[in-house]
Design brief:
The radius of gyration is 19 Å and the shape is globular. The strands form four sheets. Strands 9-8-10-7-11 form a five-stranded mixed beta sheet, sandwiched between helices. Strands 1-3-2-4 form a four-stranded mixed beta sheet. The chain has eight helices and 13 strands. Residues about 1-35 and about 285-289 have low confidence and may be disordered. Strand 8, helix 4 and strand 9 form a beta-alpha-beta unit. The chain has helices at about 75-85, 95-100, 150-155, 165-170, 190-200, 210-215, 245-260, 260-270, and strands at about 25, 45-50, 90-95, 110-115, 125-130, 135, 140-145, 160, 185, 205-210, 225-230, 235, 240. The longest helix has 14 residues, at about 245-260. It folds into two domains: about 25-135 and about 235-275, 3-Layer(aba) Sandwich (D-Maltodextrin-Binding Protein, domain 2), CATH 3.40.190.10; about 135-230, D-Maltodextrin-Binding Protein, domain 2. With about 290 residues, it is α/β, with parallel strands linked by helices. The N and C termini lie close together (about 10 Å).
Length: about 290
Amino acid sequence: GALSISACGSDAKVTPATDATDTSVATGDTAGAGAIDCKPVKAGELTVVTSLPGPNFWGTTDAEVDPDKISSGIEYDLATLIAAKCGLTMKFRNEGFDAIVAGQVAGDSYDIALSQVTITEDRAKVVDFSTGYFKSDQGLLVKAGTAAATFDDVKKLTIGVQASTTAEYYFTSGEVAGWTLDNTKVFPDLSSAYAALNAGQVDGIVIDTPINLGQASQSEGKLEVIGQFKTGEEYGAIFGLGNGKKAIFDPILQGLMDDGTINGLIAKYLGGDPSTVPFIDVPVATATS
């Protein structure tokens, strides 16, 4: 039957240690550039929420956490393009990832959240999701030269995952038949997981394929994504539950997908095409309860 992932997703986010207020930055004057009435929560502005760091999605591979230092990235550019369609100036702020996906960020305090959020049934009970705009399976990042072509090969490795992610659920919960990996280490955030890989404390890190491709692209050839696990996940934008924003922004997102704009952003920033990463066959994902 269908696999329902509870309170998790394939999202690499670090909850900011500081208050999220007063961290908005503007991208520049796009007001007047569009004709769609996007009914912004603040006149003249598209208010966007994300959770930093988001390498290649918000900022560079340096994984910036200061909004004032971010002026590029897949979702940054996407938000800017959406704002232009609305005739607004894009501004964004940093919020805790857990709060975003739990619907704890007040729905009337932002227009759209773009934070590499995997669409799940459980999350959709507390927030509205856009149509999926980015396919994301689970990639295996290793030090260059590490080989793992089969799931049996992967079982011989020590794998690191981030807490509250799809990878943790699949590999450690025991709820997905055949997917359990005994040698798994769970890290509180992705930065810690990557540090453990570089230090040789784990053999590989499993997180969204595009996120791992971004990490590999900044490693000067020291790291590579050698395979991925098919989970059929997609990223979606988040809106306040039932606030009507989905009906406004879905057509805009769909248009940017249909005209190739989003694929162009992916190609520009990822340094690799997720579709070229080979899949590692794993047992059929069947819930045991």
